[in-house]
Amino acid sequence: MTQEFIFPKEFLWGAATSAHQVEGNNINSECWLLEHLPETIYAEPSGDACDHYHRYPEDIALLAELGFNSYRFSIEWARIEPEEGEFSYAELEHYRRMLATCHAHNIKPMVTFHHFTTPRWLMRRGGWLDEKTPEYFARYCKRATEHLGDLISAACTFNEPNLAMILSKLLPFKIQEGPFWNIAAQAFDVSPDRLGLFQLVAEPRMRDIILDAHRRAFEVLHAGPGDFPVGLTLALIDVQAAEGGENKALEYRREMSDIYLEQVRKDDFIGVQTYSRMLVGPNGAVSPGKHVEKNQTGEEFYPKAIGGTIRLAAEIAGIPIIVTENGLASTDDTQRVRYFQRALHSVVEAMGDGIDVRGYYCWSAFDNFEWVSGYTPKFGIITVDRETQRRTPKPSAYWLGKIAQANRYY
Ligand code: BGC
């Protein structure tokens, strides 16, 4: 555990966020509307979030001061194209200023073009279940890249297009069967079977539409301006077989990960995002037992999962890897430091075995809006006071920042 490891010179060290989770008041997104429905499944609305929309200059300066050399954030389609075909020059300029601020602090910006949220107008057309959506997505990517590309250091088209597939295996109920689904469909004026919510529909036809959108966006982003690597990120759980679950585990892994990994072999990198493992028995996911250490949301504390998923990604996709998210929900920051310590150890082991890992981003820079769970789960290395918006780095921020600055694991 104590062996020293020196990372390659260009290794990316960063923290990650997504627009809806930190910016605040993302009112033209489908998510804002869902948060305010009478039967909403969201614990609370996102509101001002971390007001990162206005406070990004101090936030980026803080990340640089802590020792990071990169920042992964998303640009918001619902702001850039709030109505079909109406592009906002002002919002594109906003993101241009954000990118320029990164460069002013020697921070390499990694930009995600879609991190779960989608403009409301697109949901009224069936969202990620509509055949025309890849065309719309590519058009938005083109417009954004034309405006921002020269300042982008790396880009992810999509964040976790496989999340819905994972949730379908983990949740003990079908979200489409509850009252929320019909009310949400009504709100977007579509029939329930055309409610194309990115995070929640686990259907192969949605997967195909998103992968088609990814391929088109890949071309558009490479057309420049700028010359930066392009990939997508996947939620990769370390799937392990419990007794008698060998076949089921392989089946789960195939549907949740392998199918996607096989589709990105021509990309410039794959973003690996891992939090824990899944134990699979003959009939599906099983609990790791009462006595294992847990995180704040009841998931098993299993930091070395990242080593397993890096190896899987390397084996199936065979392209460079960037850990685009890794972290822990915890109110106990010493638990988070222990998590990073062990997780990084397994990253280092994988690299020692010759796997090409080019960066590590923790989730998340800030305590932020954790989707349906609201503000309760604390993933941040920086606390945000919900009243005053005051930022305070936690010990984990200094710990990770120091490793980043030294570019050395010890
Ligand atoms: C997502 C983030 C989320 C995090 C923690 C990832 O699935 O990309 O948006 O907050 O996990 O749950």
Walk me through this protein's architecture:
- By secondary structure, the chain is an alpha/beta fold.
- It has 2 domains: 12-228, Glycosidases (TIM Barrel), CATH 3.20.20; 233-363, no CATH class.
- The protein is 40% helix and 17% strand.
- The chain has helices at residues 19-22, 30-35, 52-66, 77-80, 89-104, 120-123, 133-148, 163-170, 179-187, 204-222, 246-262, 305-316, 333-352, 395-406, and strands at residues 5-6, 12-16, 70-74, 108-114, 154-159, 230-235, 238-241, 269-274, 277-281, 284-286, 321-326, 357-363, 382-384, 391-393, 408-409.
- α13 (333-352) links the parallel β11 (321-326) and β12.
- The longest helix has 20 residues, at 333-352.
- The radius of gyration is 20 Å and the shape is globular.
- The site of beta-D-glucopyranose has 11 residues, from loops.
Kindly summarize this structure in a few lines.
This protein has helices at 19-22, 30-35, 52-66, 77-80, 89-104, 120-123, 133-148, 163-170, 179-187, 204-222, 246-262, 305-316, 333-352, 395-406, and strands at residues 5-6, 12-16, 70-74, 108-114, 154-159, 230-235, 238-241, 269-274, 277-281, 284-286, 321-326, 357-363, 382-384, 391-393, 408-409.
Summarize the helices and strands and which ones pair or pack.
Elements: E1 5-6, E2 12-16, H1 19-22, H2 30-35, H3 52-66, E3 70-74, H4 77-80, H5 89-104, E4 108-114, H6 120-123, H7 133-148, E5 154-159, H8 163-170, H9 179-187, H10 204-222, E6 230-235, E7 238-241, H11 246-262, E8 269-274, E9 277-281, E10 284-286, H12 305-316, E11 321-326, H13 333-352, E12 357-363, E13 382-384, E14 391-393, H14 395-406, E15 408-409
Helix pairs in contact: 7-10, 12-13, 13-14
Bound molecules: beta-D-glucopyranose.
